[in-house]
Design a protein that fits this description.
The complex is a heterodimer of chains A (285) and B (767). By secondary structure, chain A is of the alpha+beta class. Chain A has ten helices and 14 strands. Chain A is 33% helix and 26% strand. Chain A has a five-stranded antiparallel sheet. Chain A has a four-stranded antiparallel sheet with strand order 11-12-13-14, sandwiched between helices. Chain A has a three-stranded parallel sheet with strand order 1-3-2, covered by helices on one side. Chain A starts with 6 loop residues before the first strand and ends with a helix. By secondary structure, chain B is an alpha+beta fold. Chain B folds into three domains: 167 residues, 2-Layer Sandwich (Aldehyde Oxidoreductase, domain 4); 193 residues, Alpha-Beta Complex (Aldehyde Oxidoreductase, domain 3); 323 residues, Aldehyde Oxidoreductase, domain 4 (2-Layer Sandwich). Chain B contains 19 helices and 30 strands. In chain B, strand 28 and strand 29 form a beta hairpin. Chain B is globular. Chain B starts with 6 loop residues before the first helix and ends in a 6-residue tail after the last helix. Classes of the chains: A alpha+beta (285), B alpha+beta (767).
């Protein structure tokens, strides 16, 4: 379980990093940030990148800042940065709650937010967060910088819209209203395992009714996404068990479930119904 | 060094006390020396190229690219090791199984994904893996056999899918079923899982040409047997080969048996005159080290109107995987022999089909055969209770073997011994454990919660364990010139606390502090023979041998001291390593002074022989909550009662029980080696093979009792290694049934959320 030979590059600036990436992208050059997913698959030799561009020394990528509208998360920000709220905003509370469900403590100390998104595991808590909240991805290469909306970013199981010479330099998440409700629930067989289904919800209550509902589902399809059918079921409804059950049922029916050797489509749908309802119940606690 | 008169009577015994482990200091200081820590100058790394095909004919191997790779020293295929015979059987080696033994590299056929086909020797492990990737295997695929209970037929070549059938029994089973008031039948299965130690396997061989000694480091469990038989396989003798055990990161039955890799490093060290190092990686471990537990049982019981058992008839299928390894028929044999458990079963028949499949070969795993057959027996007891319409505790009580029936001859044999339960008061332990669990209150509270809509329930499982397998253990005890004591044993440490337990026994027998005792284990050059560590045998067998040798040494010390102190041995005593006069007056001398005065004479050796095993027993009680939507099971309470005869160190016993419970829960709820339809293993990482972690293992209450000391050894010792694991699947299944209020709902382990969710969707049917 030793990786195949590779060259490790350690750029100090973003320009250097992008220059190297553009040179080695064609030879399966890969960005190394926290390494919590990449290094194990290299050890299994499922990935044999000839070049690793280690961005842990790149200045500026560790920014974690809010401009009053968006929270900017740089490529070197670790999961553990969110163990305590990073800003005085409901978004920060949401991120802290979600962060504690990511894998295990040592992994959270090392793995990065942006790395998680670039890796695009369907069960990733951060991918679900980005998809649900409508994150903006800042992709940089020597060719320039572009913004990619979350809905266009996730293309499938471990597949994203990033070109091979692009670095996911930053992710921007919109701050939440001060009265925003959020709820999260994931189902896995052991604490810290990849979720078999997960859901993140946010909404506001206006005149006693649900408004601006966002219902994200992860781990159940090839990529996390918002389930509009469930959101429709919620918007305008009283936040009660009936509404939550209706939204959960809508999500159950709307998904295109992943199947594996042990998990059939019907069970995955049932899990989605359970996690959506429980995320909604969590939003009231 | 004044000792006061009469103190010998007041000497506080250390056996029975939970003193701190001697083993922990080096481990906590990071001074542990595990297999991977062993390296020798100039060593070569070995990498195994394994079959990626479950079943096929091996048509050719092209290793030319690997051989040409910089840093590669050599590549071996079967033709290079054709002179090495297949790996022999250590236990239960039926003659008809011999053609199914595994050669150290695949010959003609590959029979499971993970089978060693080629080995690459290279400068380091990285290069070895690079080169291993370049080896091309030309394999003609054959249809894999994956079901162990289907029709029998050819496996491949001259091999058949059913190499043997185990038959055990007594009494007139047919007559009992004819006369029965009712017959209760079940079809049950246990899942494929195994012991997964934190430390993977490793073997480092070195040949010292000058002394003509071959060493292998990384040994565990049974170093002496392995030394003798590896030597034989590669044309050496037990006198010019030695095995060395370092620290061992878990054994559980699977570590320390002879595997192909052990033989290969030894043969290569001899052939190339270079140290050869092989360290298993985790993926290899999960497909190459012994699997266990996969069985399907069709069991039926004949009962009378009160639910008393008249006979049990059990036919089962043991999915052994592709080869018969060192344990040969041990697991199915134990499953058949231990199924009756703590109950009176007037007539019994077991038919165990040993079946080959294209999966990783199997061996023993903590409570081998018993985890499986306890699940079957206790499911059967619950089914009988449901059939008769009485409580699960009451049905057990009605069928228990009484204390007055001890010793109880089961009329069955296993591991070359006749099974006679040596002592036990099963009903008493049941009462004590129920009391510890607050059983009536627990049941009442669960009933109330169920009425409120929760799916909660509790279950009970009982079992008889076996331990202390003979035939013999020899121990040598010496006083060194500095007064420290050395106890040289023929056992092994897989982390269970051997050093501490043996030191406690020797300390009491000798009259020294247990921390002054150094216990040697797992070194074949320190003592000529040793039986090793398996079958919960060490404390019973080696413990009594240690006591015998220590008593002998004490007598010798007193005799020698009496000469020097001009008195009678009977007038002397040893207290805190000092030889004192019982009268309390006059000069004394330390053991160190005596050892210096009589160099080489303060040594004694003794052997404990035993032809019968001893039989501890236990009760597990589980309370669970089922998540009706997801199928998840949460354990709310877990209570264990276990009678160990005499606990040398209660904390060590509790630790054994606690660790066993964690593994039992793994097999009940989480762990499973899953294969796809082509025989491709799907559980090859810790993301897919789910071991319980601290978050999944519940708080537990452990009640250790000493109500039934063994009459077969003076201290009354019984073993503690396997009682934590044995009935966990059974107890969890019973609790889930209760939570669902559906007797017999759980028929298969592990109870994954997928399976349980499916079950919850089915309409409740009759039993």
């Amino acid at each position: 379980m030793k990786p195949a030979p590779f060259v490790r590059h350690v750029p100090r600036t973003l320009d250097q990093a992008l220059a190297i990436l553009s040179q080695v992208a064609g030879q399966d050059g890969r960005i190394l940030a926290g390494g919590q997913s990449l290094v194990p698959i290299m050890a299994f030799r499922l990935a044999k990148p000839a070049h690793l561009i280690d961005i842990n020394e790149v200045a500026g990528l560790d920014q974690l800042a809010s401009d009053g509208k968006m929270l900017s998360i740089g490529a070197r920000v670790r999961h553990a940065a969110f163990h305590a709220p990073v800003a005085d905003n409901r978004l920060a509370a949401l991120l802290t709650y979600v962060a504690h469900h990511i894998a295990h403590y040592p992994i959270r100390m090392r793995g990065t937010f942006c790395g998680s998104l670039a890796h695009a595991d369907p069960a990733s808590e951060w991918c679900l967060t980005a998809a649900t909240l409508g994150a903006t991805m800042i992709a940089m290469s020597q060719r320039g910088t572009r913004e990619i909306a979350a809905k266009d970013f996730f293309e499938g199981i471990m597949a994203t819209a990033l070109a091979e010479d692009e670095l996911l330099a930053e992710v921007r998440l919109p701050l939440l209203a001060s009265d925003a409700k959020f709820g999260f629930y994931e189902f896995n067989r052991r604490a810290g395992d990849f979720a078999m289904a997960s859901s993140l919800v946010t909404y506001r209550i206006v005149d006693g009714k649900i408004a601006e509902a966002r219902v994200g589902v992860g781990g159940a399809e090839s990529a996390p996404r918002r389930i509009t059918e469930a959101e429709t079921a919620l918007n305008g409804a009283t936040p009660d068990d009936d509404a939550f059950r209706a939204a959960a049922e809508a999500a159950r029916d709307a998904i295109d479930p992943l199947e594996d050797h042990q998990t059939d489509a019907a069970y995955r749908r049932d899990l989605v119904r359970a996690v959506v309802r429980r995320a909604l119940e969590h939003s009231l606690t | 060094m004044g000792s006061t008169p009469g103190m010998s009577e007041a000497k506080q015994k250390i056996v029975g006390r939970s003193v701190a482990r001697l083993e922990d200091r080096p481990l906590l200081l990071g001074q542990g020396r595990f297999a991977a820590d062993v390296s020798f100058a100039g060593q070569w790394s070995m990498r195994v190229v394994r079959s990626a095909v479950a079943h096929g004919k091996l048509r050719g191997i092209d290793a030319s690219a690997a051989l040409a790779w910089p840093g590669v020293h050599a590549v071996w295929t079967h033709k290079d090791v054709a002179h090495i015979p297949p790996i022999p059987f250590r236990l239960t080696g039926l003659k008809e199984l011999e053609p199914y033994r595994q050669t150290v590299l695949a010959k003609d056929y590959v029979r499971y994904v993970g089978e060693p086909v080629v080995v690459v020797f290279a400068a380091d492990q990285y290069v070895a893996e690079d080169a291993a990737d370049l080896v091309e295997l030309d394999i003609e695929p054959l249809t894999p056999v994956l079901d162990a209970s289907g029709a029998t037929g050819p496996f491949d070549g001259t091999h058949a899918t059913e190499p043997s059938v185990i038959r055990k029994g007594y009494g007139d089973v047919e007559a009992a079923f004819k006369a029965a008031h009712a017959v209760v039948s079940l079809a049950l299965s246990t899942g494929r899982h195994s012991g997964v130690p934190m430390e993977t396997r490793g073997a480092i061989a070195r040949y010292d040409e000058g002394r003509d000694i071959l060493e292998m480091h990384g040994a565990a469990k049974v170093p002496w047997w392995n030394r003798d038989h590896i030597a034989q396989m590669i044309g050496r003798t037990r006198d010019n080969m030695h095995l060395y055990e370092g620290h061992v990161g878990g054994g559980f039955g699977i570590r320390g048996e002879i595997y192909p890799e052990d033989v290969l490093v030894c043969a290569a060290a001899l052939a190339f005159k270079k140290p050869i190092k092989w360290i298993e990686d985790r993926r290899e471990h999960l497909i190459a080290a012994n699997h266990s537990r996969q069985q399907q049982h069709n069991v039926r019981a004949a009962i009378d109107t009160n639910g008393r058992i008249l006979a049990i008839d059990n036919e089962f299928f043991h999915d052994n995987g592709a080869y018969m390894r060192t344990h040969a028929a041990t697991v199915p044999d134990l499953a058949a022999a231990m199924l009756p458990g703590p109950y009176r079963v007037p007539a019994y028949r077991a038919i165990g089909h040993i079946r080959l499949t294209n999966k990783t070969p199997s061996g023993t795993y903590r409570a081998p055969g018993r985890y499986e057959s306890t699940f079957v027996r206790e499911r059967l007891m619950d089914a009988i209770a449901a059939h008769v319409g009485i409580d699960g505790v009451e049905i057990r009580r009605r069928n228990l073997i009484g204390k007055s029936a001890m010793p109880y001859d089961l009329h069955l044999d296993t591991l070359g011994t006749h099974i006679v339960y040596d002592s036990g008061d099963y009903a008493l332990l049941l009462d004590k454990t129920l009391a510890a669990a607050g059983w009536p209150e627990l049941k009442a509270s669960l009933t109330k919660r169920r009425a409120a809509g929760e799916k909660v329930g509790a279950g009970v499982a009982m079992f008889v364990e076996k331990s202390g397998l003979g035939p013999s253990d020899t121990v040598r005890v010496d006083v060194k010139s500095n007064g420290k004591i050395e106890v040289v044993t023929g056992v092994a440490s897989v982390g269970q606390g051997v050093e501490t337990a043996m030191a406690q026994i020797a300390a009491d027998a000798l009259g020294v502090d247990y921390t002054d005792i150094n216990v040697i284990h797992g070194q074949t050059d320190r003592i000529d023979t040793g039986s090793g560590a398996f079958a919960s045998r060490v404390t019973v067998m080696c413990g009594e041998a240690t006591r015998l040798a220590s008593v002998k040494l004490r007598d010798r010390a007193l005799k020698l001291a009496a000469e020097l102190m001009q008195t009678e041995p009977g007038a002397l005593d040893i207290i805190n390593s000092e030889i004192v006069r019982r009268s309390g007056s006059g000069a004394s001398m330390t053991l160190a002074e005596l050892a210096q005065a009589r160099p080489g004479e303060l040594s004694a050796e003794d052997t404990f022989l035993s032809s019968h095993m001893v039989y501890p027993y236990g009760v597990h009680i589980a309370a669970v909550k089922v998540d009706g939507e997801t199928g998840a099971v949460a354990i709310e309470r877990y209570v264990i009662g276990y009678d160990v005869g005499k606990a040398v160190n209660p904390r060590l016993v509790e630790s054994q029980i606690a660790g066993g419970l964690a593994q039992g829960l793994g097999g009940a709820l989480l762990e499973e080696f899953v294969y796809d339809d082509h025989g491709e293993p799907l559980s090859v990482t810790f993301a897919d093979y789910l071991m319980p972690t601290a978050r999944e293992v519940p708080a537990m209450s452990i009640l250790i009792t000493e109500d039934a000391p063994s009459p077969l050894n003076p201290m009354g010792l019984k073993g503690a290694g396997e009682g934590g694991a044995n009935p966990v699947g059974a107890a969890i299944a019973s609790a889930i049934d209760d939570a669902l209020q559906r007797p017999g709902a759980v028929a298969d382990l592990p109870v994954t959320p997928q399976r349980l969710a499916r079950l919850l969707k089915e309409r409740p049917g009759p039993l």
